[in-house]
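Quick one from the shared queue. A colleague (R.T.) flagged protein-serine/threonine phosphatase as missing a structural entry in our internal table.

Convert sequence to structure tokens.
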Amino acid sequence: MTGHVLAFTGTALVAVYVLDAEGAELRLAETVRSAGRSYALPAHYPVSGRSPVADAFRAGHPLWLTPTELAAYGPAGPTTPETPTTPGVSLGALPLGGDGKGLGCLVVVDDAPGGIDADRRGFIELYAHHVAAGVEAAGPQALTQPKPELGPTLDRLRVGSFALLLDSGRMTADTQVLELFGIPGEGFDGRVETLLAVTVPDDVPALMTALEPDLLTFGTAQLEFRIRRPNGELRWLGLRARVETGADGTPRRMLGVVAETSYLRPSADEVSLVQRLSAALAGATTVRDVGRAVVGALRDPLGAGRVAVAELQADQLVVAVLTPAEPTAWPEVWRTAWRSEWPEPPSHALPSLAEALRERQISIWPEGADLEPGLAGIGPGGLAVLPLPADGRIVGVCLIGWERRHEFGPEERSLLTATAGLVGQALVRAHALDAEHELATMLQRSLLPRKLPELPGGVAVTRYLPATMGLEVGGDWYDVIPLPDGHVALVIGDVQGHSAAAATIMGQMRTAIRAYAVEGHPPDVAVAHANRLLVGMETDLFATCCYADLDMEEGEAWFVRAGHIQPLLRLPDGTTQELDVEGGPPLGVVADAEFPMTAAGLSSGTLLALFTDGLVESARLDLDDGVRRARQALARADPADPGGVADELLGGDSRREDDVALLLLRYDGMRVRPTRASWTVWRLPDAVMHARRFTARTLRNWGVEDDLDVALLVTSELVTNALVHTRGEVRLSLTLTADRLRIAVNDMSPRTPVKPAAVDWEATGGRGLLLIEAMSQTWGSVPLSGGKQVWGEISLSSPWEERRTEGATRTRDRRTSR
């Protein structure tokens, strides 16, 4: 094995120095020499003295010396029995350990008059990281004992090297790398795929990220993975590699070393912890879920006081979870950034953290480490910073801090390394899920009503919850459509599937049914028209729908069902029932399908629930059981709070396989029913006069005296416009509610009236709509079957109770006079 170490490093001597317990000296712990060479190194070096080993240790980076540069150090270099110094010898000193915790130095000596070449330097620097892991696993105290238990260091460390040419993808590997992978020397064809073939499938993506030419990134790659040897043995290997660039800055080749790291694997308890974390991360669908899984898996087992998980977006830490969540538990730099629920501190405000992220390696600082307050306050007893790698980049960071002094063992370091890789991949996956789910939800909600209209005699509430177990947008929709004469249409529907096509069809169906309803078509005709429209689209998708036309004055409802789930009723006494609504086929299946109507009466206090199948059916819930549960939730809910009833129906299941749309109406009945009257306007020369007389007579009977002049002016203009600009029948309608008078004129022209932009003094027309707008609180035009209705609403100056009293007095006076 000695020959292996020297052949790998290409040197005549390799030695390990470790720091003593007092931190004052670097002591020689192990030396490997080539046969016939008598080079020797001092037994110890003062840390504060001048020597290649001490200088490299203090600087924290490798020191490479040519014979001339080494001679300047005098007797501090290698010697032979014959001479105190050795001319013509090159030396390299490489610090072991990092993260503010120096372990010692690796020293190599070689007969190289021109110095150790660049390729060997690259391999030796990568090799030093594996030696450092072995030293840390054995413990520096063990290395300085009279009979040291060296552990897997130097000749006991099984390590090999490889080089990968990036332009061709060809790899050269020494015999030790092939032996570690269990590949015969003559059986290696120089292809990366040959190494991937013996890698455990779960670890192949990570290894591909490090070795595939198309996926390579600049800098140093580090990972651990498992391979399956021909005899079935499972072995852990560690890989470290760096990418070299050419003169033009493009990647040219990769140099790497592979070592066996089974001795660094965690104990059985730590394995179970990683397994629990893996299981929790597998079910994490949001970035917040990932953070909670990390906190739940690590905080208590590690005895940590604070844990933070954050995404790295540009220079900003977007925090997913902080525990404890109180601002006062965190240093000032975190509290000043506490904009909402979680802070977003810039990483440049924490230079030690920014440096750890640039190095892409776990950083561990013991108690009393010299850190800026923003980090020292997180872990006064010890702090671990875990950069979270994924796809060749750092995507986030996990901070774990301890209140009291915490000792970091090699097993815990290995555990944190494994944790970082798992969390990084989960964070990327959850971020993608978050983004796609947010996009799907935004698209879905943009196709649904932004707000519901206020209904006379009832309260409507809706809920829409997108599926959490799928990412594509669904086709569930709802709508509440105010109709003339105190009617309202309630619509719930579901387009087959989850896709952009389903969302598109959903938007078209909702718009079509709304248009047919506003035009005045009865429920069965509106649904039949929508069915023919969907059939004509020649799509493979179909839709289900339930349409209810409710008279808010009388409480009478007409239902039409197209392949949809039956609606539910909660009666005022608390009993529930499933309405037996006769149904037709789903929309888009049969062009000439009929959709019969079913009548039902609602009494004041009744709750009507329309919903999609996602509420009552899933892979874990049978439809009948789901409907039974919905009826039970409806029965125990408080009808005084329709929003609370809707939330009770949705329940607390956060993992939904399908979208859920819910439309709930509490029918109260109208306290004051509208009073209506209508008049057919004949096309006679004095038609407007007759319309004014009808309006005046009707309003006086209703007790509307104060606003009579305004009402007559609006009537005149509406009737005049209809007679002048349309043909066919014209009908005048008056509707009186508690505080409003609605004057409407129906005609047979579908053309919407257009208000003129300006009217000059000499114009003989064009002022009608301007007068209507000026005298009415609101006005508008709605299409009706074969025509339109133009209307204006007047806000009445006298309350309804006063008008009712005056009307009763006039009636009594007339009876007395008789």
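Confidence is low (pLDDT under 50) at residues 140-144, 146-152, 814-818.
The radius of gyration is 41 Å.
Added to the table.
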